[in-house]
Amino acid sequence: MFGKRLRGTDSPITRDTGFGVGAQVYVVDRFEDPTTPFPDGPTGFVVRHGGSAWGPVSVIGGSSRVWWIEFDTPQYTADLEGPLSRVQVPERYLRLAPPVGENDYLSY
């Protein structure tokens, strides 16, 4: 209803951005956007859509979807709040993580 499904997954992904539950993401760091809430550019994955409605949410700097992100490791905000493991982040601060290739895995 809200998007398409990626081949081989059960996760709905929005057609226009590629974001959805299960997407691996990173938060832009302070060098890409000085207003980022997490200046060190942490990584994680989308656990659910933020807010109570699917439509855009009004945020400073314009309208944007908001997503709940589970970080790989707990993080601190630019205001030194934390450590935080799961937070809501506006989509404009998120980027999809690059795909992992077959040869990118570490062997132990």
Oligomeric state as shown: single chain
Q: Which whole number gives the mean pLDDT?
A: 75
Strand content: 35-45%
User: How many strand segments?
Assistant: 9
Task: Identify the strand order in the major beta sheet.
Answer: 8-7-4-3-9
End-to-end distance, in Å? 42 Å
Helix- and strand-based class?
Answer: mainly beta
Biggest sheet details: 5 strands, antiparallel
Rg (CA only): 15 Å
Which stretches are low in confidence, meaning pLDDT under 50 for 5 or more residues running? 1-12, 53-57
User: What is the percent of helical residues?
Assistant: under 10%
SSE arrangement, N to C = EEEEEEEEE
Shape summary:
globular
Query: How many DSSP H or I helices?
Result: 0
List key phrases describing it:
mainly beta; disordered N terminus; globular; 108 residues; 0% helix; 38% strand; two-stranded antiparallel sheet; five-stranded antiparallel beta sheet
Describe the fold and architecture.
This protein has 108 residues and is an all-beta fold. The protein has a domain at 23-96. It contains no helices and nine strands. A five-stranded antiparallel beta sheet has the order 8-7-4-3-9, with no helix packed on it. Residues 1-12 and 53-57 have low confidence and may be disordered.
Give a short summary of the structure:
The chain has strands at 4-5, 12-13, 24-27, 43-49, 57-59, 62-64, 66-75, 84-90, 94-96. With 108 residues, the protein is an all-beta fold.
What's the helix and strand layout?
Elements: E1 4-5, E2 12-13, E3 24-27, E4 43-49, E5 57-59, E6 62-64, E7 66-75, E8 84-90, E9 94-96
Antiparallel strand pairs: 1-2, 3-4, 3-9, 4-7, 5-6, 7-8
